[in-house]
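Q: Sequence in, structure out?
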Amino acid sequence: MTFMLVGGYFLKDVPIYIAWLRYLSINYHAYMLLLKVQYGTITSIVDGMKLDSGFKDVCALAAMALVYCILSYLCLRHV
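A: Exactly. Output:
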């Protein structure tokens, strides 16, 4: 639930002590890519967030998927 709150769907002004969690959230990177797809041709700034090429978000999502697969493999291997 914390990742959903800091991801950008529900709250825009996240308290500073949990704001760093957005970079660990799958929801945040997916939300930024969604904004890029929907509004990238119209404007470069949406709700105060600058839209870039999206390469950083795609790399972050791919890295998260790889790390989660490796962690789940290790957990299952341990069992």
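The longest strand covers residues 45-46.
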